[in-house]
Amino acid sequence: MKNIQSNIKKAKNYLDKSHCVAVPTETVYGLAGNAYSDTAVKKIFNLKRRPTNNPLIVHYYNLKKISEDCEINDNFIKLYKKFSPGPITYILKLKKNSKISKFVTNNKKTVAIRFPKHPLFRKLLKNLKYPVAAPSANISSRLSAVKAADVKEEFGNKIKFILNGGVCKIGVESTILNITNKPRLLRYGGLSVSKIKKTLNQKIVININSKDKISPGLFPLHYSPGLPLRMNAKKNKKNEAFVLLKKRENISKDIYYLSKTNNLNEAARNLYSVLRKIKKDKYKSIAVEKIPNEGIGKTINDRLKRASNFK
Ligand code: TXA
Ligand code: MG
After folding, report:
1. Which of 33, 44, 226, 281 has its CB surrounded by the most CB atoms within 10 Å?
2. Which residues, 6+ apart, have CB-to-CB distance to 259 below 8 Å?
3. Paired residues of 30 in beta bridges
4. Does any ligand 1 atom lie closer than 6 A to the CB of residue 75?
5. pLDDT for res 215
6. What is the spatial distance between Cα 214 and Cα 53, in angstroms, rounded to a whole number?
7. Does the Cβ of 43 fall within 6 Å of ligand 1?
8. Ligand closest to CA 33
9. What's the pTM?
10. Rounded-to-10 torsion of CA 120, 30, 54, 180
11. 3-state secondary structure of 110
């Protein structure tokens, strides 16, 4: 407990001085900085080697402070009540007098906001006088980090501090929904679209491959382990790692399980760790068996599809 307090204090001190620290969320680790500080936000982009036209998500403790920064609407309130804190990010209209750094939004008229659920990050946010901009804590286009050691692997000693909150429970990034107008899904994520649809009782336009320049983070190549990857494989080739969702009898050393019981939530939680491990084990390519395209399986397939664009 004492340790927790002192770690949160450490993270706060760095953030107050416009440095970056890594923070745990229920989805993936984030690379955090003061969202109101140009200095801090520029550091995030540099560390991640992220194109400056790819806007960041701003994280809040709760909805008390957000009306200083963005326009709230009925759909937002409905979803917030049901799903926040949790793995959903809302795109809302930015207020003109908001203090959010223009580097966060790339000078756009909208902002992405989210209320993370991890208790450590929540404790930290509660102690801050500003919201926190945080993209996933990985070098641009690579796999997100789901534990402190992954963050270390990505950035070495380049970041001041990692607030260690163990392994992320969900393991894939938040679902992104634009609700400035009719609801549009921009990224599959930890919260299933069917649940959102049920709550809003409205049609959700799936807009994940939009040419819309505002979400360049949804580039075709993303979430890549840096190896060729193919989906819907029935078997693996020689020297190819084989990623499975269900237990098989003919165990070969090339087999990696996302789940042994066809559990899609477990598979999502293990996805990035398994891909990282395969890379470390020096395989040259990856085959993945067919993943059912339902619930969080849609998110897994979205990530695999983007990773499969690696040549
Ligand atoms: O689960 C998550 O969302 C994690 C944790 C750390 O919160 N964060 C995360 O951030 O995945 P990042 O930066 O890796 O992905 C954010 C995505 C990017 O694809 C970006 O283009 C999009 O959100 N985005 C940010 N602001 C936007 C906006 N105003 N309009 C449309 N897309 C936006
Ligand atoms: Mg990311």
Report:
1. 33
2. 245, 246, 266, 267, 270
3. 23, 136
4. no
5. 53
6. 8
7. no
8. 1
9. 0.96
10. -30
11. strand
Ligand 1 centroid to residue 205 C-alpha, Å: 18
Give the nearest ligand 1 atom to 50 CA. 13
Residue 57 Cα to ligand 1 midpoint, Å, equals 5
Closest CA to 264 of 231, 215, 299: 299
Q: pLDDT (tens digit, 0 to 9) for every residue of the chain, 311 residues total?
A: 679 999 999 999 999 999 999 999 999 999 999 999 999 999 999 999 999 999 999 999 999 999 999 999 999 999 999 999 999 999 999 999 999 999 999 999 999 999 999 999 999 999 999 999 999 999 999 999 999 999 999 999 999 999 999 999 999 999 999 999 999 999 999 999 999 999 999 999 999 976 555 454 556 678 889 999 999 999 999 999 999 999 988 778 899 999 999 999 999 999 999 999 999 999 999 999 999 999 999 999 999 999 999 87
Q: Which residues of 112-131 are buried (b: 16+ CB within 10 A; e: fewer)?
A: bbbbbbbebbbbbbeebebb
| 299 CB near ligand 1 (under 6 Å) | no
* CB-CB neighbours of 194 under 10 Å: 12
Does any ligand 1 atom lie closer than 6 A to the CB of residue 217?
A: yes
Ligand 1 atom nearest to CA at 29: 6
CB distance 303 to 172 below 8 Å:
yes
**CA-CA-CA-CA torsion sign (90, 96, 98, 104):** positive
Best CA proximity match to 25, nearest among 116, 112, 114: 116
Q: How far is CA 261 from the centre of its chain?
A: 25
